[in-house]
Amino acid sequence: MKMPTKLRYGLRFMANIAEYYGRNELISISHIAEEEQISNKYLEQIISSFVKAGFIKGNRGKGGGYKLIKDPKKISIYDISSALGEDMTFVPCVRGVKNCYRKAKKRCAVGDFWHEMSDQVVDLMKNRSLNDLLVKN
Description:
Elements: H1 5-18, H2 29-36, H3 40-52, E1 56-59, E2 65-68, H4 77-83, H5 111-126, H6 130-133
Antiparallel strand pairs: 1-2
Helix pairs in contact: 1-2
């Protein structure tokens, strides 16, 4: 099972920028891109989701950059995933039997397992904050 690239990169971006929370400075996309080994172009695509969600703000252009404006303790991993439009259901039927690949009328024998697994992942994501991801030295 593989997490979506957008979520993996989005979490890395947010954890990186959270390290600077509370400082009055803008962090450039190129700085984070270099540290996280993510292309500037890809970061620009995901950053707009975080601006819209009210997690970060910034200025583009020379001398520009971004900063986290919401306390990392108040941003859950689920919030980040949701801002990126990522759905942590592992199979479509978890969203309802009408989404079943087999066009089933009721949940199959393993459907309950997939539903439980998705619920546990979502619960974990809701109960972990961005601050929990930060490396403490």
